[in-house]
Specification:
alpha+beta; seven-stranded antiparallel beta sheet; five-stranded antiparallel beta sheet; 23 helices; about 10% strand; flat; PH_domain; zinc ion binding
Length: about 1000
């Protein structure tokens, strides 16, 4: 803190300097004087700011009081006039009462006037005098000028003294104050004078803003005491009148009630005499118009405009920036200076246009979260923009009120259009599902595929029990008709239905004849010749897999069962509520906003609409019992029978009415009255892709970047391997084909629905396993590695004795790449059972552009010859791990799981020399769990491009450079150069 000088010290030092200038030490205190003035000026600035706010508040208080007085005067005048009306009609009691209330309000009004007068004279006037008078101006300016004059004169004299000493051969560094006291006396006296005047002004301000202001507050406080005393006196006087008036008013009200009762009785008698029936009088009401009471624009300028405006930024630098602005359809679009950023789009219905009172070329646009300041070229241009904005806002408001009843339909139309656009961009939907004609425009609703117009005609000939065809462009589709198309698509459908296609030449092209198309389509959809059976042959196991697919919300397992011509209407093995439940009953029971496509598939393809449980409940009954209105829409669209009764004699409508499920009841009533809309919209978690638009434009560079979602929280594709005794190998070749019970590849990352839960809440999904060795963790503590299983000695298709060969150890397989990902629990299996086996869906490698997400893989087929060939090329086959290594693996996995809560960052992959490039062959199928991982099938050749760590390499599929990513080293072997 700088040294300061008090007022008393300044007086004493100045008097000493006046009496003896040569011996005075005042010059050494001049710096303290200047510091004191600066400190006092800062305090005065702070006081000035507070006083300005206080003055503004008192001014508003006084203005509000004046408004109150004017309203009270109007109220009193109305009471007096009302009293006069009663006096003229001869009702003296009511006239006197209203006159008394007017007198009481007048007494309160006089007290309020007195209080406001005191507020004006004692508080507002004092604050106005301080802010506009005493505090106005720069008090320090004369003092600063005197200080600069003194400094410049002192520097000049010191320079002359040094020059004089230099002439005599002397060196002089300092000049004593006594030597120049007489020469600097005038400047010093001027400095002292302005310092004294400044201190006098500060003293006056302290008195006015302190003592005087408090005294005025005391005067106003006394006026407030008088105000409350007057009000209390008037209230006590008026209270006596009120106590006397209350019983008289009760008596008058009783008389009026009696008169009203007599008049009503007379009215009823008159109506009966005239035999008039009461009827409603329907008057034509004029439409209510909403008045904004806001700025009205000049209509001649219209509602649309485009041009450039200057916009003030909201960042730290308040600069005017040129922006292109467009007003159209009730929106203002503000472009950015760079083309790679989306423009800001403001809805004018939520904005207010306000002209700037200070600058006629400026106007403000106040939105819900910020205020935009615009500057036009001139005043006329500004008025045009304000008018156009106001007119566009008014037009949008009128359209919104006029078409309010069409709002829901308009929104649904937009949603349907967005869903159709997403469906068109799904893998394989850019060409016909049957003949690969580009840009198909016809949809098979019950299969979820897109086909061309030529193939659609053949589909119609097959009948609606095979394919229900609608046009994407000509028909007005509802969201309920897009459920399967949103969740299946051409690529995934053909991966199942065309898995056994002999060759590509057998499939028709866009130039194929209609006979060829028809033969292929009948073979594909009616005969289903090209489907590879993937579900176990045991009927019990088949039904169990379908039941688990419904619980796991897996549409592609159901599609596989449908393609294999399985009976989807059979009762499930483990019913949830009632015996003889079908898959459709179970799907309805478990349905939510993410699983309606499962219900829709079974409704259209299972033939279960009329199936009843042991209690006679159909799927429609289940919808009413469990309040599933969206499922009711799907069932009614398929023309489900609403008249079927259960064993209690209740229809679905009776149950909905009994349980007070209003929405279900309304839908069933509509169907009963033939009023149900077959193109119904359903509430489904569509999650259409949308880009975020920024409301603010100029400060984006100052905002922190939004981090992407952590990829380590994504669901995994590999789960648990069963124990060696749980599912014996029926066929040694199955171990390498991936079709055996312990080598089932989980394809749900490829085939799963967009929103299917990875855990079935109440039921256990099918057990999916991996056919490869356990994947090493990426950037985590290394656990003991497990080698792949031994190859078989024969490729026999018959069962072998499982006791004569080494069984693969029970491993907890998990595609674990970081130490933060938890390991899944391993279910305990207690014995072999064909019924508990799962199946693997067909996988194919698309030749027209595959990616880790869209690639579907086929079962690996490694024969004995290929293993012998690999062994001859130098591939080492590791031996089976012992029990101790398995225990060490479990311990290491548990320790790595709990070591860190936050996964370490992945190291950057460095570019490797071309000399490091190797060709390796895949030993097993591998399904990617993360975006940067590689999906491949056994037998594919991979070009190694880099090494992420000792367990993970980076490479690409030979011949498919766009299929690249990291892969585990243990899944491949190096080919000789």
């Amino acid at each position: 803190m700088p040294d300061l000088i008090s007022v008393q010290d300044f007086i004493s030092q100045t008097q000493e300097d006046l009496s003896s200038p040569t011996t005075s030490s005042f010059t050494s205190h001049m710096g303290k004087c200047r510091n004191t003035v600066c400190s006092l000026e800062e305090d005065l600035d702070s006081d000035r700011t507070v006083l300005q706010k206080m003055r503004k508040a008192v001014k508003a208080e006084h203005t509000t009081g004046q408004d109150l007085i004017s309203h009270l005067e109007a109220h009193i005048a109305a009471l007096e006039k009302f009293s006069g009306n009663y006096h003229n009609s001869g009702d003296e009691k009511l006239s006197e009462a209203f006159t008394t209330f007017a007198s009481f309000s007048q007494e309160l009004l006089e007290a309020i006037k007195s209080l406001l007068l005191s507020l004006y004279h004692n508080i507002r006037f004092s604050l106005d005098s301080l802010v506009k008078g005493d505090f106005k101006g720069d008090f320090k300016k004369p003092f600063e000028k005197a200080w600069k004059d003194y400094e410049s004169k002192l520097a000049k004299i010191e320079k002359e003294k040094r020059e004089l000493a230099k002439q005599y051969g002397m060196v002089r560094t300092e000049v004593a104050g006594g030597e120049i006291a007489e020469e600097m006396e005038k400047e010093r006296r001027m400095f002292q004078l302005h310092m004294c005047e400044y201190l006098i002004k500060v003293n006056e301000l302290k008195t006015k803003k302190g003592v005087d202001l408090l005294q005025n507050n005391i005067k106003h406080c006394n006026s407030q005491f008088n105000f409350f005393q007057k009000c209390l006196k008037a209230t006590e006087k008026h209270k006596q009148f009120i106590e006397k008036l209350t019983p008289e008013l009760q008596s008058m009200k009783s008389k009026q009630e009696e008169e009203k009762k007599q008049l009503r009785s007379l009215r009823d008698q008159l109506k009966a005499a005239l035999q008039l029936e009461p009827r409603e009088q329907n008057s034509v009401r004029k439409p209510v118009r909403y008045s904004m009471h806001q700025l009205q624009g000049n209509k001649q300028y219209g509602t649309e405009r485009s041009g450039n405006l200057l916009k003030k930024s909201d960042g730290l630098r308040k600069v005017w920036q040129k922006r292109k602005c467009t007003v159209r359809n009730g929106y203002l679009t503000i472009s950015h200076s760079t083309l790679n950023r989306l423009p800001v789009k403001l809805n004018l219905l939520t904005c207010q246009v306000k002209p700037n009172a200070d600058d006629k070329k400026c106007f403000d646009l106040i939105s819900h979260n910020r205020t935009y300041h615009f500057l036009a070229e001139d005043e006329q241009e500004c008025n045009i923009w304000i008018s156009v904005l106001s007119n566009s806002k008014e037009e949008a408001l009128n359209v919104a009120f006029k078409q309010a009843h069409d709002k829901d339909g308009y929104n649904m139309e937009n949603l349907t259009g967005a869903i159709i656009e997403e469906i068109k961009h799904m893998p394989g939907n850019n060409m016909c599902c049957d003949c690969s004609t580009p840009d198909p425009a016809w949809l098979s609703i019950n299969l979820g595929i897109l086909i061309c117009i030529e193939c659609s005609g053949i589909h119609r000939e097959l009948g609606v029990h095979h394919s229900r065809i609608q046009s994407l462009a000509l028909d007005k589709l509802a969201t309920s008709e897009l459920l399967l198309a949103k969740n299946i698509g051409n690529s995934r459908f053909n991966d199942i239905v065309e898995a056994n296609l002999p060759n590509s030449s057998s499939k028709p092209t866009k130039d194929s004849a209609m006979t060829h198309r028809k033969h292929f389509i009948i073979s594909k959809y009616v005969d289903r010749k090209y489907v590879i059976p993937r579900i176990m042959r045991s009927p019990v196991a088949k039904l169990k897999n379908l039941e688990n697919a419904v619980k796991a919300k897996d549409i592609f397992i159901l599609l596989q069962g449908y393609a294999e011509k399985m009976n989807l209407s059979e009762p499930v093995l483990e019913f949830s509520q009632e015996p003889r439940e079908t898959l459709l009953h179970l799907a309805v029971l478990l349905s939510d906003r993410t699983s309606l496509h499962i219900v829709d598939f079974l409704v259209q393809n299972s033939g279960s609409l009329l199936k009843q449980t042991s209690r006679g409940n159909t799927p429609l009954h289940y919808c009413s019992l469990h309040n599933k209105p969206e499922c009711i829409k799907l069932l009614l669209r398929a023309k489900a029978n609403i008249t079927i009764t259960n064993e209690a004699g209740e229809t679905a409508l009776d149950i909905a009415s009994l349980l007070n499920h209003t929405t279900c009841k309304d839908l069933l009533l509509q169907a009963e009255n033939n009023q149900f809309n077959m193109r119904a919209h359903v509430e489904y978690d569509w999650q259409p892709g949308q880009e975020e638009m920024f409301e603010s434009d100029d400060e984006l560079d100052e905002k922190p970047c939004v981090m992407k979602k952590d990829r380590f929280h994504r669901p995994q594709s590999c789960y648990n391997l069963p124990g060696p005794a749980s599912q014996p190998w029926k066929n040694p070749a199955d171990f390498f084909r991936g079709t055996g019970p312990a080598s089932q590849d989980k394809c749900h990352d490829l085939y799963a629905t967009p929103h299917a839960s990875r855990s079935a809440e109440t039921a256990s999904p099918p057990t999916y396993t991996s056919s490869g060795p356990p994947l090493p963790p990426r950037n985590a503590p290394r656990a003991p590695s497990f080698p792949p299983p031994l190859p078989p000695t024969s490729n026999s298709a018959y069962p072998v004795d499982t006791t004569k060969r080494a069984m693969p150890p029970p491993l907890t397989i998990r595609h674990k790449r970081t130490s933060s990902e938890p390991l899944p629990s391993t279910p305990l299996n207690h014995g072999p059972s064909d019924d508990s086996r799962s199946f693997s869906l067909p996988r194919r490698c698309s030749q027209e552009g595959a990616s880790p997400r869209s690639l579907s893989s086929q079962p690996s087929e490694l024969s004995e010859d290929s293993w012998q060939q690999a062994a001859s090329e130098g591939m080492k086959i590791p031996s089976e791990p012992n029990q101790n290594s398995r225990e060490n693996h479990r311990t290491s996995s548990r320790s790595s799981e709990s070591s860190d809560d936050i996964p370490p960052p992945l190291p950057k992959r460095g570019h490797m020399n071309t000399s490091f490039l190797h060709r390796v062959r895949a030993l097993y199928d591998c399904q990617a769990d993360h975006e940067d991982e590689l999906t491949f099938v056994a037998g594919e050749i991979i070009i190694v491009e880099g090494q992420e760590d000792s367990n993970w390499w980076h490479g690409r599929i030979e011949g498919y450079p766009y299929r690249k990513g990291v892969f585990p080293v243990s899944f491949v072997y190096i080919l000789p150069e």
